[in-house]
Specification:
single chain, alpha/beta, Chitobiase, domain 2, 8-stranded parallel beta barrel, 5-stranded mixed sheet, 19 helices, 20 strands
Length: 738
């Protein structure tokens, strides 16, 4: 059941992402070029069966009817689809377009469906019924190219079925060029064991049937489903530990009574192999698994353990063993069990956060993985960077780091030498620098990142964790298009499609300015805050006069209704750069972002074309809202620096007045900034929408911020000055507002 309270405008956004999606976009000024064929009224022949092929053809036919208002079928050129007898999962295809028409050849129905959706993408980019002559195949495509469903909830025990898998939403994923999506689930919901029956899940058959249903529904459009499986720690008195105390492994870090199954114990490894074999026997069409080996995910005795003084895990069995060998042997046995049941399934060992227990380059670990395992690493994590005389680290999904990072390259090279399939992980719209807005509009930077991924030689890529999922942001569209092989002048074509051919030059200038701005983003775990602070809630971040949260702070400012706060009350935000370097960097960030916004203001608004007009207005709103986020970061840092100086430096009443007047001026600027942001949030309800994680900014949050800031200006700061003068035996003065 869709949770209407999960985020503002949930129903509106759900309807927008689950309608047919074929809007009228014909460019009436378009003319056929010499190297193109007319693409409508085809004589269609489809040889070979397959529901995915029929659905992709039907969607192409609907696209012509709604987007071009022309018939797909007729007595014109040939449109021939030939599918082989392959029963496997191959997505390989070739599209030949010449003066006789279009011919699609594929080994399997899935491959033919992928080809048909790519043809639709080519037509959508062209905004006219013309196709370029040539051969277009899947040789340079990524497989898998995975997204995350926008309406899959954060819970790892609930599928969010059926709302997350609406037929029209799945069509949109397929049209965008993605090969499938992953679901982050707790493996315990699939437990059915003879070895450790204490773990058996009462709802296992229901959960398996739900999974099979989702796989079938997705397969109807050529999409695959992957599971990113999580293990959860167990209480020390769990029944399985009472019966078999020897399989209790390390205690989980920062806990008193949470333990992991011993990852070196033969019975535990047999249990894992048994369960994955059971899973694939009961869901044989499952695409594969994503198993995090590092600091979370598939927990083992070295993941995040309560370490001994010797920096070893506290599992008596695993502590004396080489961790790389222990963990590799566990994954090897699991992968072997999967391959015995389903040879085409992928078992991808994702070295996310592997620095928690071994070298970030994972050389020893990868050298011990078997050929049944595939490897995935973050494409843009682990490199240090200079910033205004300070130094930071791209510690997680980063757009500041285009990639490939040195740790990724090291892992990729070793995987290649060992003959292991390699994959890349990055975000396609919501990097950790800004993971609450639909996408960062630094499109030239995204293009460089995606091009580098394709050029790195990886087999596939994971383009979304769970921050927002696929919501059709422009950079998400770019990732899908490039993943399916569309690279030639793709930025120019994408800009022309969404904003008009006459605006391409201006949009490229704007995107390059945003690209330059990202060079000055002070990315750190402090500034990202992991879902809090001005780069997450933006202008909804209040300016607090003390480090304590006010008692009247609404529920919307807390993670998942009652969790930790989303706002920041201290200057921990600027770590590790320090206030001075942070402010210098963010001022440069603001300058270049302002330049980009100014370029977007010069584009032709195309009032005569409803499609272009809407796209341009939405893009402008997103770019302006980012500028509001950046200015809040500046204002909050300047305000807190002055606020904290009252405790850090001596001051006279006269100096106090100067500081408080400066704080008042900052608050006034931020008041205006928040008013602008509120207008933008009200204008476009998609750009800040997030269902899976907590949303970042909302109307309710901004309205509280405005009231709080007015009170700060009119009462809190004047009252502080009144108290200072009184306490220094001066006639008490109320700080003038004017």
């Amino acid at each position: 059941m869709l949770d209407r309270k999960q985020a503002p405008h949930t129903i509106e956004n759900y309807r927008a992402l689950t309608n047919e999606g074929h809007v009228f976009l014909l460019d009436k000024t378009a003319r056929r070029e010499r190297n193109e064929i007319p693409a409508s009224g085809f004589r269609v022949a489809a040889r070979g069966n397959g529901e995915a092929v029929k659905n992709a053809l039907k969607d192409l036919e609907d696209f012509f009817a709604h987007s071009f208002r022309k018939p797909f079928r007729g007595d014109g050129l040939s449109f021939h689809v030939e599918t082989g007898n392959g029963a496997g999962k191959s997505a390989q295809y070739a599209i030949a377009i010449d003066d006789s028409g279009v011919k699609v050849c594929a080994e399997t129905p899935r491959g033919a469906a992928r080809a048909l959706f790519r043809i639709q993408s080519m037509l959508r980019l062209r905004r006219a019924p013309f196709l370029k002559k040539g051969v277009f195949d899947s040789k340079t495509s990524l497989d898998p190219a995975l997204a995350y469903p926008a309406f899959k909830g954060h819970s790892t025990t609930d599928f969010s079925d059926p709302e997350a898998y609406h037929e029209n939403y799945l069509k949109r994923l397929a049209r965008a060029g993605y090969t499938g999506f992953h679901l982050n689930l707790d493996v315990a919901i699939f437990y059915h064991s003879a070895l450790l029956p204490e773990f058996n899940c009462a709802n296992v058959q229901k959960n398996l049937e739900t999974l099979r249903k989702i796989i079938r529904q997705s397969g109807r459009f050529g999409l695959e489903v992957f599971l990113s499986l999580y293990l959860e720690p167990l209480k020390g008195d769990h029944p399985v530990f009472k019966r078999l105390p020897e399989i209790r492994g390390s205690r989980f870090v920062s806990t008193d009574d949470a333990y992991i199954l011993c990852s070196s114990h033969p019975r535990v490894r047999e249990f894992y192999a048994e369960q994955l074999g059971f899973l694939f026997r009961n869901a044989p069409e499952l695409g594969g698994l994503l198993l995090i080996s590092g600091c979370e995910g598939w927990l083992h005795c070295h993941t995040a353990c309560a370490q001994t003084k010797e920096s070893l895990c506290d599992c008596p069995r695993c502590a004396p063993l080489p961790p790389e060998q222990t963990v590799a042997e566990m994954f090897n046995q699991m992968a072997s069990a999967v391959k015995k049941v389903q040879p085409e399934a992928r078992v991808i060992v994702w070295n996310y956060g592997i620095f928690a227990w071994t070298d970030i380059r994972a050389q020893k670990f990868i050298s011990l993985l078997s050929k049944d395992c595939e490897v995935m690493a973050n494409f843009d994590t682990g490199d240090d960077f200079p910033l205004e005389g300070a130094q930071g680290t791209c510690f997680d999904y980063s757009l500041r780091c285009v990639g490939p990072s040195e740790p990724f390259l090291a892992q990729s090279r070793l995987a290649d030498r060992r003959g292991l399939v390699m994959h890349a992980k990055c975000e396609s719209g919501t990097p950790l620098e800004y993971c609450s807005l639909q996408y960062v509009p630094a499109m030239t930077r995204w293009h460089r990142k995606f091009a580098a991924i394709l050029d790195s030689g990886v087999s596939g890529a994971l383009f979304n964790w769970k921050f927002m999922g696929f919501t059709e942001g422009l950079s998400q569209e770019l990732a899908g298009l490039m993943s399916c092989g569309e690279r030639d002048r793709i930025l120019e074509r994408l800009a022309a499609r969404h904003f008009g051919r006459d605006n391409v030059r201006l949009l490229l200038k704007a995107w390059r300015a945003f690209d330059r701005a990202m060079d000055y983003h002070p990315f750190s775990i402090g500034s990202a805050g992991y879902f809090k602070g001005p780069f997450y809630i933006g202008p909804a971040q209040p300016l607090f006069p003390t480090p304590e949260l006010p008692a009247d702070l609404p529920e919307c400012f807390f993670w998942k209704r009652g969790g930790r706060p989303l706002c920041m009350t201290t200057l921990s935000f600027v770590e590790p750069f320090g206030v001075k370097a942070f402010l210098r960097a963010v001022r440069k960030l603001e300058k270049h972002w302002t330049d980009g916004c100014n370029w977007t203001e010069k584009v032709n608004p195309h009032p005569e074309d409803p499609y272009l007009k809407k796209e341009i207005e939405s893009h402008r709103a997103l770019c302006r809202l980012f500028l509001c986020f950046i200015r809040t970061a500046l204002h909050m840092t300047e305000f807190y620096r002055l606020r904290d100086s009252f405790q850090q430096e001596p001051y006279s009443p006269e100096q106090a007045r100067e500081k408080l007047e400066a704080m008042r001026d900052i608050a006034r600027e931020e008041l205006t900034n928040t008013e602008r942001a509120l207008e933008l949030v009200r204008t476009d309800h998609r750009i800040a929408f997030s269902y899976s994680y907590h949303y970042g900014i909302s109307e309710e949050m901004c309205l509280y911020k405005l009231a709080h800031t007015k009170k700060l200006i009119e009462h809190t700061l004047p009252q502080k000055y009144y108290g200072i003068t009184f306490n220094r035996n001066r006639h008490p003065v109320w700080l003038s507002i004017s």
